[in-house]
Design goal:
Elements (H helix, E strand, L loop, with lengths): L2 H12 L3 H5 L20 H15 L7 E5 L5 H8 L4 E6 L2 H13 L6 E5 L2 H5 L5 E7 L10 H11 E10 L11 H6 L9 H9 L12 H25 L2 H14 L1
Parallel strand pairs: 1-2, 1-4, 2-3, 4-5
């Protein structure tokens, strides 16, 4: 798919307004699977634990250069700078996310350590730039089946020799297209790969897989937290959008759980 088409697909879901997501995500606006140490953890705690868990897996050290592909609203790159002392760049195709992330980075005085750009991984890979560590959370599902090898090659190109990369994504147990309803109304252009597909793409490059972890139970808990928060916000969401939108997103969150 073209850059323009990818951007349109991302905008369909992520550019419907930051205010909508603020109503039911945690304070950091982390829109991916959280990491619950106990079922009693709050969503805020669990999301910070997932970010820290990811950065520790990357063995992130002070002054290392980190790239976050599909950085969302920038929670991970800001945490990487504030707590781990890294130099972090986040890229996204969502204009709403990019604008909000830049505002938050400036408000925290992190302009010298963190940047967020409106850019695709393929374009960045064509520049002469490399990173010590690369992370991509909840983005590979938007690449599309035909572009998975290209995505893996871009990561290889952007990663310094001996560097570490962490991919966090939803996987399926069988090779099949995304549910037609989800493709039409929620995530156009998406594809849920199997673990084997991801491994095949990585093995074509010079990657050595060190660790695979399944966070499935954590994602179900995350989605249930989101659903509960969404329901509390329904009166506001209904006024901003309509009943059809409420029913559509309710089904998406519940069915995903």
């Amino acid at each position: 798919r073209s850059f323009r088409r990818q951007k349109q697909d991302v905008a369909h879901h992520y550019d419907i307004g930051n205010e909508l997501f603020r109503l039911w995500l945690d304070e950091s606006l982390t829109y991916s699977c959280a990491y619950f140490r106990t079922p009693a953890d709050t969503l805020e705690q669990a999301q910070q634990q997932k970010i820290d868990h990811s950065l520790r897996k990357l063995r992130l050290h002070p002054n290392e250069r980190l790239l976050d592909i599909g950085c969302g609203w920038g929670a991970l790159v800001m945490r990487a700078a504030e707590v781990f002392g890294a130099q972090a760049l986040g890229i996204t195709l969502s204009e709403e996310q990019c604008t909000a992330a830049k505002t938050e980075i400036e408000s925290r005085g992190l302009g010298g350590k963190v940047a967020v750009k409106l850019e695709g991984y393929d374009r960045l890979a064509r520049e002469t730039v490399q990173f010590d560590k690369i992370v991509s959370i909840g983005m590979a599902e938007h690449v599309g089946k035909a572009h998975l090898p290209e995505f893996a090659h871009a990561i290889e190109t952007l990663l310094k020799p001996g560097g570490l990369a962490l991919l966090h994504l939803i996987t399926g147990v069988r090779n099949r297209p995304v549910n037609g309803w989800t493709e039409k109304y929620i995530f156009p252009g998406s594809y849920i790969p199997t673990v084997a597909e991801i491994m095949d793409c990585l093995s074509e490059g010079d990657f050595h897989v060190w660790d695979v972890e399944n966070l499935g139970p954590h994602y179900r808990m995350t989605l249930d937290h989101w659903s509960e928060r969404f329901e509390r916000a329904v009166p506001v969401i209904r006024r901003k959008f309509d009943e059809r939108f409420v029913r559509m997103w309710r089904l998406y969150l519940r069915a995903s759980s």
